[in-house]
Amino acid sequence: MPFECESNTCSTDVCMNLQKQFREQGNIARQILDWLSGIFGFAAK
Description:
single chain; two-stranded antiparallel sheet; alpha+beta; 1 helix; rod-shaped; 51% helix; 2 strands
């Protein structure tokens, strides 16, 4: 039975909030860059 999501998209009958997922992935990328900058001594921008 089809349904509509209030969030951005629906995949295999599951509503997904893409904005939240992108924000979380960006935070993880920032943490990795910060960690690498600590090891190699450069400033991540």
